[in-house]
Task: structure prediction
Amino acid sequence: QVQLVESGGGLVQAGGSLRLSCAASGSILSINAMGWYRQAPGKQRELVALITSHGSTNYADSVKGRFTISRDGAKNAVYLQMNSLKPDDTGVYYCNALIDRAYWGQGTQVTVSS
Result:
């Protein structure tokens, strides 16, 4: 089994920054990609950012230029640096890892006040 544990969420004012972390543990041979998704109240879960094992990245248009995803392959970890946060960034952020299938973390709340 694989477990993903996120940390780093919280309450921040608009314009502020937060850094999310996610570490994968368990029976892991290799991770194909890791990413962050978010779900705002009343909305569907959406991709925020993704990074592959080769370092290729993909971002939602709404976060380009403000968020940066990175990973530490040795630690099976992924990070999301979020700058210039906006109230629309509020939601539960979920870590995702593509191994033999998709695994999800429990989610961490990010709240951006105006």
Q: What stands out?
A: The two ends are 40 Å apart (CA to CA). The chain has no helices and eleven strands. The chain has a mean pLDDT of 96. The first strand starts at residue 2 and ends at 7.
